[in-house]
Write a structure and sequence with these properties.
5 helices, mainly alpha
Length: about 90
């Protein structure tokens, strides 16, 4: 399971999708809020990647995907906050 999480943490597609999710959330925060779009996006990315890639154990890959997506989301949100504070 740890190997699966480590490989997912380095997946550039997963990182790009989470970064795009945060960018979209920031742009539409007034209309949609913050928590619900992020939660649904994390679950969506965790489900869609293993299902489309045809992994042997999709339930284990989805569970690992949720964990790795939350880690990536935390990093991207921290970077977005730093960038927002630097801009003023």
């Amino acid at each position: 399971m740890l190997d699966l999480i480590q490989s997912q943490l380095l997946d550039p597609l997963r990182i790009g999708l989470i970064a795009a999710l945060v960018y979209t959330m920031v742009r539409t925060r007034a209309a949609t809020g913050t928590v619900l779009p992020l939660a649904l996006g994390v679950v969506f990315v965790a489900v869609i990647l293993p299902v489309t890639q045809g992994t042997a154990s999709p339930t284990q890959a989805i569970a690992a995907g949720i964990v790795s997506n939350l880690i990536i989301l935390g990093i991207v949100l921290a970077l977005a906050m730093i960038i927002r504070r630097l801009r003023g």
